[in-house]
Amino acid sequence: MAKKNTNEMSFLDHLEDLRWLLVRSTIAVIIMAIVTYFISDYLFDTVIFGPTRPGFFTYVYFCELSHQLGFAESICITEMPFIIQNTQMEGQVNVFIWICMLFGFILSFPYILWEVWKFISPALYQNEKKNAKVFIFFSSLLFFMGVIFGYFVVIPMSVNFVATFTVSPTVINQFTLDSYIGMVKTSVIASGLFFELPIIIYFLTKLGLVTPAFLRTYRKYAIVLVLIIAAIVTPPDVVSQTIVAIPMLLIYEASIFLSVLVVKKEKGLALKK
Predict the structure, then answer these.
(1) Residue 175 to residue 166: CA distance in whole angstroms
(2) Which 8-state DSSP code applies to residue 210?
(3) DSSP string spanning 78-91?
(4) Other CB atoms within 10 A of residue 250 CB
(5) What is the DSSP letter of 122?
(6) Would residue 79 count as lying in a domain?
(7) pLDDT (mean) for 59-83
(8) Is the per-residue pLDDT at 200 higher than 60?
């Protein structure tokens, strides 16, 4: 058998490393999902279905904020005019499994980042390899901040909007369990990953695929997109939309700032050479 060339072996080695990254990450998610199983009662009753109750923290806080801003009871929530029902025989079983897996992924995220770092570290400079702890810490922090933002802001706003919106008093809102859980999963994971934008921009800038000028040029489009997202997931009032939009815009601006720092650092290294 002919001997494989070096480039081919190197590519296959990378594929093998990627395969084991996925295997170990999956095992970590499953282990944390099993841990989540033991607190499933609290997880569902208090966490998952918390935003469906008027006494949820976000609703109470916004009500107090409306009084302070002189809006009286305009954004106070006293009831949730809808019910959540299961329409499939295996519906609750599937939801139970996927929620455990979701929280397993969230809890194991720092470990997954560690695996990703080990995978990409051979392509980094020696001084950059020493920043593993910094990378994992800030990436995990941003992700958890995004998850918290999604849970305490995006989900309550979305639930409040769809619960109170109606085309006619004749129509009664009866949401399926799958649709509610799908909204929870999407809001939490999407927010967590969106908050990873500065980290993504950091690596894209280092690879030369993104520049601060590019990000500034498309800032106006980003603002419009953020405002559209905020308008979709919130009730039609300025306060709610602003609360959702501001953190997302700050994340984008932080990405531009980080891109500028990377470019300056690269230029400094180039001058030293």
Answers:
(1) 13
(2) -
(3) ----EEEE--STTH
(4) 10
(5) G
(6) yes
(7) 76
(8) yes
What pLDDT does residue 4 have?
45
Closest C-alpha among 190, 206, 213, 5 to residue 102: 190
Rounded distance between C-alpha atoms, residue 106 and residue 223, angstroms = 28
The confidence score (pLDDT) of residue 208 equals 82
Residue 25, pLDDT score: 94
Residues forming a β-bridge with 245: none
DSSP string covering 152-205, please?
Answer: IIIHHHHHHHHHH--S-TT--EEEEHHHHHHHHHHHHHHHHHHTTHHHHHHHHH
Is 73:159 a contact under the CB 8 Å cutoff? Answer: no
- Work out how many domains the chain is built from and give that number: 1
- Per the CB < 8 A criterion, the answer to whether 218 and 259 are in contact is no
Q: Buried b / exposed e across 172-199, counting CB within 10 Å, b at 16+?
A: eeebebbebbebbbebbbebbebbbbbb
Average pLDDT for 186-212:
88
Range of the domain at 76: 13-163+172-271
In a domain, 123, yes or no: yes
Q: Can you say how many angstroms the Cα of residue 251 is from the centroid of all Cα atoms in its chain?
A: 12
Evaluate whether residue 232 is within a structural domain. Answer: yes
Length of the chain: 273
- Evaluate whether 139 touches 66 at the Cβ level (below 8 Å): no
DSSP class of residue 44? I
